[in-house]
Amino acid sequence: MSAIKSIALDNTELLRFITAGSVDDGKSTLIGRLLHDSKSIFEDQLSAITHTTNKRGMKGVDLSLLTDGLQAEREQGITIDVAYRYFATPKRRFIIADTPGHEQYTRNMVTGASTANLAIILIDARKGVLTQSRRHTYLASLVGIPHLVVAVNKMDLVDYSREVFERIRSDFAAFAEELKLHNITYIPMSALNGDMVVERGDKLPWYEGVTLMDLLENIPIDHDINLDDFRFPVQWVCRPQTEELHDFRGYMGRIESGSIQVGDAVTVLPSGLTSRIKEIVTYDGLLNHAIAPQSVTLTIEDHLDISRGDMLVKTDEKPQVTKEFEAMLCWLSEQALDPKRKYLVKHTTRIVKALVSQINYRVDVNTLNREAADIFKMNDIGRVRLKVQQPLVCDNYEHNHATGSFIVIDEASNNTVAAGMICPEGFDGSGSRSGAGKLDGFGS
Fold first, then answer.
1. Mean pLDDT, 10 residues at a time, over the chain (444 residues)?
2. What is the spatial distance between Cα 269 and Cα 283, in angstroms, rounded to a whole number?
């Protein structure tokens, strides 16, 4: 690849997306088809999976082997871990997370979805919308993935029937309406044969929409970042020990949301002290204006006591500062949640001790019913109330993902045991507000 092409790819947008759905819906095959047809695999990789395919007594090339890297997956023909793959086209760079379909790997799916801009929910055209399809759609809505693609796969096994596609589309749309999901694109396809993946093929003349690759390359993702509320968690206080910069004091970090410019009034939280932006410093020099997700060093006009874990916000755009909040929690650890134990909560750049003071309910991710619970086990998801030792500067997750999310750490083992999303009062985890009972519109 030439130096010019390398620079061009480095400057293209990065789209992170996941594939999810029921077992054997063709997630890994779809990713293999994307990589193969976009010419993003090497000859030795293609030769290796061709050899493995032939050893199994199968014809052609099993493209799912490009992502099913674990030996256990290859033996069982299922995806267990989250398989990440990178590829690029002249228009955009991509990171794909191929997530597991089995219920016992819910935590893996949540991990893959946590940073995604888009989710592809695969549905087998022969089977229609299944429980696992609904479960993964719920998880995608829970973590707030802004764009959803419903890929009705294996259309070749139903004679590319338009009636089958429309029936599945109608069923899924009714389900999505209950979750308040509206930004959905429906695409009929055959990942095995390549129809409507990268190339259109000639078997679906009745479908007038875009191919999957067209959508991935062109869907706008700029507005996925909150550009309204300035949030700057301080990662490091910069005090160079040099003669010419001995008076310099800068606050380093990444702008998680919003924008800032020289002269703006800012408040330091949780202390509440105020000042104005004096300089915005970057590796390339001084800026007058910066925007999320840039990493910058900020200086202010006043000498204030600011340290790692503090947050700079615009004075007229303050978030909540609290020691107690409710959150939807996904438990990731094999060791169950113990409400009597203290944990660590890492929120932006601040780490504080925390206690789960109340478990409101656990969600059955298959039926979406809410159940009473005393503990959370691995893969459980539900609503809890947490109390923290020091105040956190936070927003509701639905409003700002960066300052509305956190992880829970076991302070004894230092393992990450849960991921959380801060809820507004009255939020039930279904994308809407409701009272007690089951999640609106679901359950038997």
1. 37 83 77 77 58 61 53 40 75 82 62 84 93 85 91 96 97 90 94 92 95 94 80 93 76 95 97 96 93 94 94 94 95 91 96 96 85 92 95 93 93 92 64 38 30
2. 26
Residues with Cβ within 8 Å of residue 147, at least 6 apart in sequence: 117, 118, 119, 183, 185, 219, 221
| Number of C-beta neighbours around residue 148 at 10 A | 21
- Protein fold of 231-314: Elongation Factor Tu (Ef-tu); domain 3 (2.40.30)
Domain range list for the chain: 3-223, 231-314, 320-422
Distances (CA, A) of 431 to 141, 251, 334, 361, 399: 7, 36, 28, 16, 12
Q: How many CA atoms, within 13 angstroms, populate the side-chain half-sphere of residue 297?
A: 14
pTM of this structure: 0.79
Question: Are 231-314 and 320-422 in the same CATH fold?
Answer: yes
Q: How far apart are CA 49 and CA 247, in angstroms?
A: 60
Domain 3-223 has CATH 1.10.10.10: no
State both tokens at 111. Answer: 């991990």
Tokens of 401: 């993902």
CATH architecture of 320-422: Beta Barrel (2.40)
